[in-house]
Amino acid sequence: MDLDQIRQNARHNAAAGIFAAMSSEEKSQQLLAQVRVQSDAMIDFSARHEGIPADQLEIYRAMVRGQDNPFNDELSLVDNLLKAGDVILSTGNTTGAKIITKGQKFGYKHARSSHVALVHADFVCVDAMPSLGVSNRLVSDVLSDVKPDWRVIRCKKLGSEHLDSIYQACAFYLAQPYKILPSKKPMKAAAYCSELVRKVFLHTGVMGIGIPNDSVLSPGKFDELADNHQQWEDVTEQVRPAIEFCLKYHELMSIASRLMIEGLKLNRKRFEDRKAQIKEIQLAASKGTIPREKAKELIKSIREIETNMNHQFWDHSK
Question: Are residues 158 and 232 located together in one domain of the fold?
Fold first, then answer.
């Protein structure tokens, strides 16, 4: 087991402990009380570990102690501006981004985006990146090294009835490997940025929005949708205050969003654990350690648990 895996296991265990505490009102209150009585020195040590800027240290202390603070005040002004399913279009500053942008102009002469990401919930996106594969990233991470002409577009056909589908699809594709393999059909076991957005929208079942299911899809296609398709609207100025807030409080927002991100990672880990359990049961049955009928019964009960979970994952969905 490498160091990264050890760290990830530690995060899983920490998340599991927090969720266990949250399941009980009494334990939840006890945990909050323990956190809030920490000394300034203890909180400041945690702040340094989290990379909190010095000018936001007082805000962090207040957040930890559940006190009024500017972060919460400003958050209340921009909450819900970003919607699940919003698409963020951006142009990177790298040579590779320039090549992508230039190459797309053969398909659409006004193409300018080299990357797209999808808002999963609040300030958290689902994104496909070369080194990370498909993962959750903050809006501020998505826009950390891009040209200033980024924009956000919204599908007019997406309504509240589609939110669950968006949430589930964004979670479903987490941890897919990144692979640029131009394909007319959606790839089942890999994704790149615009391909990921296509798969999530296909999952919603919303039709007539200009996202093709039978041709290669590049980021520039979303520029074309933004410019010309009647079912898409540019909401950049509408959501700009929310994005500027996230950029301003990047480190604090990372902490505020951690429960969601780590919770989904923990869900995936539990799917992996159940998959391993099934293999162990099958192996035991093949060796005669347990009766085959008992093995079938155990595997059936595990499958039933997975069927009833709120989230499914692409590599554990069978």
Answer: yes
- Residue 145 burial (C-beta neighbours within 10 Å; 0-12, 13-18, 19+): exposed
How many whole angstroms separate alpha carbon 178 and alpha carbon 190? Answer: 6
How many whole angstroms from its chain centre is CA 238?
22
Alpha carbon distance 276, 270 (integer Å)? 10
Burial per residue of 89-100, b for 16 or more beta-carbon CB atoms within 10 angstroms, e otherwise: bbbbeeeebeeb
pLDDT (0 to 100) of residue 310? 79
Core vs surface per residue 199-214: b (16+ CB within 10 A) or e = bbbebbebeebebeee
Same domain flag for 179 and 58? no
Same domain assignment for residues 126 and 198 = yes
- Site of tokens 């296909």: 202
What global pTM score does this model have?
0.85
What pLDDT, in 10s, does the model give residues 122-155? 999 999 999 899 999 999 999 999 999 999 999 9
Reported as half-sphere exposure (CB side, CA atoms, 13 A), residue 206 has a value of: 23
- Asked whether the beta carbons of 146 and 115 are under 8 A apart, the reply is yes
- Does residue 31 sit in helix, strand or coil? helix
Q: How many helices (H) and strands (E) does the chain have?
A: 13, 6
The CB density around residue 1, as the number of other CB atoms within 10 Å, is: 7
Q: Which residues contact 21 (CB under 8 A, 6 or more apart)?
A: 27, 28, 30, 31
C-alpha distance from residue 2 to each of 6, 8, 15, 124 (Å) = 6, 10, 20, 28
Whether 172 and 293 share a structural domain: no
pLDDT top residue among 311 and 318: 311
